[in-house]
Amino acid sequence: MNNLRPVGIIGTGKYVPEKILTNSDLEKMVDTNDEWIVSRTGIKERHIAAPDQATSDLAYEAAIKALESAGMTGSDLDLIIVATITPDSSFPSTACILQDKLGAKGAAAFDLSAACSGFVYGLATATSFIQSGMYNNALVIGADCLSRITDYTDRNTCVLFGDGAGAVVVGEVPEGRGFKAFDLGAEGAGGSLLNIEGGGSRLPASAETIENKKHYIYMNGREVFKFAVRVMGTATIEVLRKAGMDRTDVDLFVPHQANVRIIQSAMQRLELPEEKVVVNVDKYANTSAASIPLALVEAAEEGRMKAGDTVLMVGFGGGLTWGASVLVW
Ligand SMILES: CC(C)(COP(=O)(O)OP(=O)(O)OC[C@H]1O[C@@H](n2cnc3c(N)ncnc32)[C@H](O)[C@@H]1OP(=O)(O)O)[C@@H](O)C(=O)NCCC(=O)NCCS
């Protein structure tokens, strides 16, 4: 990637809905307790979309802030990518809804489905388009309303998820800065470990699929945990190798926020000290595609990155998929 036009992040924004669902709220809904949730996951609370908010509404709030911080308006965009597994509806895409709301007339717009890895997949896609010269300014958003696909009678999953959106504007940056490498991958054979069976062309919505709860997230937690720990390590090492760097070059590690124990295992493997790692899973839980941008944007807002710092983002999720990137801020 070194001889190509340098492309990086030139604007950031985030949004979480107002309503907070705490562990003690969940204690009243299912057979669980704060001690179990905190010790097994690190999660204390999560934000939940209001009944009249859909994924595009969360994405819009984050997008407006990202455009503002880039000093742009919608009309400056020529590409919009929304990474999500909870689009407003099957089609039109959530990206097209946003294209209209943002006044990004004529911009290409599409959704990207790579679950919790979606934001990094989106960054890689936008970067490639801009490096090739096809587009100049792209809006990449990770947004999900997981509360809409969570079974709040299933304690195995309902404690884990939340809603939110994070957005970045991707464009040309000064020489030496920007994305240095990506490592994207998938293991489709593990697809049934984390999925929603109903509502697609294989098993369309019916009274029976609703009765059998086929429209909610199913997860084999233990197997997904093992996959997550494995690929967080391998993807991180691989993306650093591609960038010609090693773990000592990393100034800030921004992992997918699914479970603090998965993050800790990656920290140990990479021998990263706490101050170099962004953790906000305690406040937002797992927000799927929004998780990495929420962590990145929060770290930026807290002044945790300075120009020239090396930022490593890495995510994993349904598919199964993973995605990692090395970015010089
Ligand atoms: C889900 C997860 C937190 C469970 O933690 P764990 O330490 O593996 O726990 P186990 O699966 O061994 O379950 C232990 C027990 O706790 C119970 N339990 C599950 N959820 C519970 C809850 N919310 N409250 C109390 N007990 C719970 C289980 O029923 C099980 O009981 P059993 O042994 O009597 O069957 C963990 O597996 C995980 O984080 N997996 C990865 C999830 C993930 O990252 N998903 C998103 C990918 S993008």
UniProtKB/TrEMBL annotation:
GO terms for cellular component: cytoplasm. Residues 110-188 form the Beta-ketoacyl-[acyl-carrier-protein] synthase III N-terminal domain. Pfam families: ACP_syn_III, ACP_syn_III_C. Its EC number is 2.3.1.180. Keywords: Acyltransferase, Cytoplasm, Fatty acid biosynthesis, Fatty acid metabolism, Lipid biosynthesis, Lipid metabolism, Multifunctional enzyme, Transferase. It catalyses: 3-methylbutanoyl-CoA + malonyl-[ACP] + H(+) = 5-methyl-3-oxohexanoyl-[ACP] + CO2 + CoA; 2-methylpropanoyl-CoA + malonyl-[ACP] + H(+) = 4-methyl-3-oxopentanoyl-[ACP] + CO2 + CoA; malonyl-[ACP] + acetyl-CoA + H(+) = 3-oxobutanoyl-[ACP] + CO2 + CoA; (2S)-2-methylbutanoyl-CoA + malonyl-[ACP] + H(+) = (4S)-4-methyl-3-oxohexanoyl-[ACP] + CO2 + CoA. The keyword Disulfide bond does not apply. Pathway: Lipid metabolism; fatty acid biosynthesis. It is found in: Cytoplasm. HAMAP family: FabH. Homodimer. Belongs to the thiolase-like superfamily. FabH family. This is Beta-ketoacyl-[acyl-carrier-protein] synthase III. It comes from Paenibacillus polysaccharolyticus. The lineage of its organism: Bacteria, Bacillati, Bacillota, Bacilli, Bacillales.
